[in-house]
Structures are given as structure tokens and as C-alpha cells.
Amino acid sequence: MIGIVGKKCGMTRVFTDDGRSVPVTIVQANPNLINRIKTETTDGYNAIQVLTGQVTKNPKKPDAGQIASNPNDKLSHKLHEFRLNESELQQVDKGKEITVEYFEKGELVDVTGNSIGKGYAGVIKRHNFKTQDATHGNSLAHRAPGSIGQNQTPGRVFKGKKMAGRMGNVKKTIQNLEVIDIDVERNLIFIKGSIAGHDNSFVIVTPSIKGKQEEREIFKTPIEDQTPEVEETPEAEAKTEETPEVEETPEVEAQTEETPEAEETPDEEKAQ
């Protein structure tokens, strides 16, 4: 499913027409240029490789090699892939850009990003464990996790046991968020609610996977292509037909016939 990659700018609020305050997250998604198209015959799956339009210092050598094939020097060093279905594969083309116009106001989207890292945390903060007694003889075990295993059988700690460790900095997806508004000129998407990640972090916005799956146009048709059809009105055609008749007036023809008589005056003076 095709989406767009952008940067999280922060949170603010938007007032609706009836005066309600809606908290929104602003995502700046510059046009994503299609750098490469992958197909089942060449790579084993259908996907597109896009450049996010955001500048990244010190790109990785594999990414720099992919970007070197594109002659545009103003591109980002951040790459991302979107898987395609059959209908989307027929629409994409190398060199085209995916903009915020791909989304519509009021639709539901899924936003993916890396959550904010909290560092090394205990089980009470990380997994919301309950603390032990603060008194009644408890000593130095107020925030301890307690027992982590059973007896000689099984004689080990099961994988996935909730224990202390690094908290945050994991991939998170928030689903079914509403698009409140879209600013095409500044490439901004206003999304209701909060999303994972700190400010200036990369996020991926895609149509909701739980919503109704419908085929959509990836690249919107420009307005300039539709203007010639509106200009071709019957009134304009009637004016164009009348203009040549007005230019051919009899007064102009009479002036052209009188001009050669005025030019013969020097010959008459010589005869005198």
C-alpha cells in the first residue's frame, strides 16, 4: 500500500466551525520522488523505492549508491519502500512524485514511527507492575520484580518474560487517525491525536488498513489540463468568426486607392 514519508513537526490544536478544539499532530511530507520500481520479475515482489525529500547528513553507502542512479542532485538521502498491488503498479512511473494530495480530508490513516526512547527502566515503569509493601518488614525490595520462575521443572525462564530493560525506541503504529486538514502549498498534513516519535523524526502515513479498501489515483490530474475545455464556449467561437469581417472595412480600401494620386505630384512640378 502506497503512503508518504514525512517529518513530525509537533502538536497544536485546530478549532472547528462549531467551536470545538481538536488536538492535531502536524506532519510535513515533502514530495516523495519515485527513485526505483521493483517488480516480481526483477526482485521477486512489486514495490517502489521513494526519496523522502528530507536532507540527511552522511548517507549510508548502499543508500548513496541507489540515489546515484538518479540525476537529480536536490534529493534526500533517506530511502523507503512501499509494496504495490496490481492496480498501483500500473499507475507508478519512475521520476513522478507522491504529494500530500494523495490523501483526502476526513479519511482515516495509519501512522508509523519509532517511539521516544526512555532508557533503562524497571518493571514498575516499563510494564506497570505493582510495588511491594513499603513497611511491615520489607527491606530493599520495594520496587523489585519478585519471582521470575517456577521450580526445577521447567528449570528455566520463559522467553518474553516481563523484566527490566530498555524502554521505548521501538516501531509503533497508531491506527485509524482522522485527517483534519491538508495544506498543499506547505506540504502539511494535520492528523487528529498523537503519533509515535519525537519532533523532527521520520513517520510513515498510509491509508487505514482496517478501513474500506478502494482503488485511488496516486497522481492527481493537474487543473491546467481541464481549463481548455472550459474556454471552448460557443460565445467565444462566435466572436472569433466576426473579427475578420470587421477588419475589412470600405474606408480603409478607399484610403489605399487615393494614396497613388498624391504620389504623382513631383512629376507635375517638373513639367511646369
Entry keywords:
globular, about 270 residues, about 20% helix, Ribosomal protein L3, domain 3, 12 strands, six-stranded antiparallel β-barrel, 3 domains, Elongation Factor Tu (Ef-tu), domain 3, single chain, 7 helices, alpha+beta
Can you describe this structure?
This protein has helices at 61-68, 86-91, 123-127, 227-231, 234-247, 250-263, 265-271, and strands at residues 4-15, 21-28, 32-38, 47-51, 79-83, 97-98, 108-114, 119-121, 165-167, 171-183, 188-192, 202-207. The chain has seven helices and twelve strands. It has three domains: 4-117 and 170-220, Beta Barrel (Elongation Factor Tu (Ef-tu), domain 3); 118-167, Ribosomal protein L3, domain 3; 227-271, no CATH class. By secondary structure, it is an alpha+beta fold. Helix content is 22%, strand content 28%.
Summarize the structure.
It is built from seven helices and twelve strands. The chain has 272 residues and is α+β, with helices and mostly antiparallel strands.
Order of helices and strands: EEEEHEHEEEHEEEEHHHH
Derived structural class = alpha+beta
Mean pLDDT: 84
Residues in helices, as a percent range: 10-25%
Strand content: 25-35%
The CATH superfamily of the largest domain appears as: Translation factors
Shape: globular
Overall strand count: 12
Uncertain regions spanning at least 5 consecutive residues: none
**What Rg is obtained from the alpha carbons, in whole angstroms?**
35 Å
Characterize the largest beta sheet: strand count, sense, and whether it forms a barrel: 6 strands, antiparallel, barrel
Name of the level-1 CATH class of the largest domain: Mainly Beta
Number of structurally distinct domains: 3
Kindly report how far apart the N and C termini lie.
98 Å
SS element count, helices: 7
* CATH architectural grouping of the largest domain: Beta Barrel
| Main β-sheet, spatial strand arrangement | 1-2-11-10-7-12
Q: And the CATH topology of the largest domain?
A: Elongation Factor Tu (Ef-tu), domain 3
